[in-house]
Amino acid sequence: MNKKLKIGLIMVVVLIVGVFIFLKLKPKTDTSMMVKEIYPTVGTIQTIISTTGTVLPKNRLEVRPPVGGRVESILVKEGQKVKAGEILAWMSSTERAALLDAARGQGEDKLKYWQEAYKPIALLSSIDAEVIVSTTQPGQTVTIADAVVVLSDELIARAQVDETDIGKIKLGQKALIILDAYPDTKINAIVQHIYYESKTINNVTIYEVDLVPESIPEFFRSGMNATIDFVEKRKEGILMVPVEAVYRNKEKRFVLIKNNNQVQPIMQNVETGITDDKNIEITDGVTDKDVLLLKSKKFVLPKSDMGNSPFTPFGQKKKDDKAK
């Protein structure tokens, strides 16, 4: 082999090694990032305080007899609206019931005489209300401790608010009632009363808050469980972008604006307002005409060692060979 051929081989080897080193040391482009172009939009943002609650009567009134005796007739049924002073039921005292039973054995005329002479007791409604319980049957014996009819003036929702959030709840504040049994129906309501005495439930201090629905649907029933969403803040017609489009640099916030004919985008400082964890308000820095760049990571499947899988051809064999 002559001298020129040796030099040529050496140069080829050096060139191959150089190319290999260059490729190994060359910075790799991050292909796991995806850039998306978006426009700021004009819309509504509201912040929510969510908790649980129960539907119950605001004022629950049990109509009990003034004396023990027997119910003669019930004039109302559940769900019926009644007025203050309306007769709900008739009853006989124990003495009248005994007297009528004795007169009944003496003939119809005797029974009618004592029915007129010894008047029954009327059970009256003391408020304008709705009958929510009417299960007592005529002929049933009752005492002064038994509720013959139960009334409710109106149904409300009582929410349980954590002590860390109670300071954000105000009288007249708007809220949404979402019944667990009817999740597709959202009932508008307002805060009517905030209780000052706390309760401890599962080692958590809560305060109860009463909400009055703006309109009560037919399926609204006492005892139903609900999710209560209090509207803490609400802004309409504001400029907003997804929260992922706003980046933070120390104490400043900025967005990336597309720079026409340039590779590098413009880093534009912005002022922000309220957020609902999905969108954030932009009060200054961009307009709805700007094109923003949103960076997000692509989903990349993890690389698998196919040679070590027992479900691939010769995979288990190779593993066994290594063990030998």
Structural summary, described in words:
- The protein is an alpha+beta fold and 324 residues long.
- Helix content is 16%, strand content 44%.
- The protein is built from 4 helices and 22 strands.
- It has helices spanning 3-25, 94-104, 108-117, 315-323; strands spanning 33-38, 41-57, 60-63, 69-74, 81-82, 87-93, 121-124, 129-133, 141-142, 149-152, 155-162, 174-179, 186-194, 199-201, 204-213, 225-242, 247-249, 252-257, 266-269, 271-275, 279-284, 292-297.
- It has a 6-stranded antiparallel barrel. The chain has a 4-stranded antiparallel β-sheet with strand order 3-10-8-5, with no helix packed on it.
- The longest helix is centred in the N-terminal third of the chain and has 23 residues, at 3-25.
- Residues 309-320 have low confidence and may be disordered.
- Please describe the biggest sheet, giving its number of strands, its sense, and whether it closes into a barrel: 6 strands, antiparallel, barrel
Radius of gyration computed on alpha carbons = 39 Å
Helix content: 10-25%
What characteristic shape results from the CA principal axes? Answer: rod-shaped
Query: What would the average pLDDT be, to the nearest integer?
Result: 86
Low-confidence stretches: 309-320
| Number of helices in the DSSP assignment | 4
The SSE string, one letter per element, is HEEEEEEHHEEEEEEEEEEEEEEEEH
Class by alpha and beta content: alpha+beta
